[in-house]
Amino acid sequence: MNKEKLQKLFNKTFSKTKKEYFDILKQNLLNEAKTFVVTANPEAFMIATQDDDYMKMLSSEKTSIVPDGIVLIKAGKV
User: Fold this and answer.
1) Can you name the residues that pair with 13 across neighbouring β-strands?
2) Beta-strand (E) ranges in the chain?
3) Chain-centre distance of CA 50, in angstroms?
4) Angle between the 3-12 and 52-59 helix axes, to the nearest 10 degrees?
5) Among 17, 24, 34, 48, which residue's Cβ finds the most Cβ atoms within 10 Å?
6) For 66, which DSSP code?
């Protein structure tokens, strides 16, 4: 497992309020900025550590990662 890759994804995972997230999405829509929303689970993060193309997609500036469950939230705090 590549700890640096996982940390990069945890740092990119949205961790603020639902309202703040929707405000960002609304602004992107108004500006016609493309956003790829990923509802990531632990398996998605593990695949990214082994697949460079998948990691590149998740790391993209246009990708927004939202945790799909409490596991990623808790793991990101460790």
Assistant:
1) 65
2) 36-40, 63-67
3) 17
4) 30
5) 48
6) E
Tokens found for residue 57? 């997609």
Ranges of the chain whose pLDDT falls below 50:
none
62: closest CA among 22, 27, 33, 40? 33
At residue 3, φ and ψ (nearest 5 deg) are -60, -35
pLDDT of residue 74: 64
How would you classify residue 48: left for phi > 0, otherwise alpha for psi between -120 and 50, otherwise beta? Answer: alpha
pLDDT of residue 18: 92
User: What would the two tokens of residue 5 be?
Assistant: 């890759």
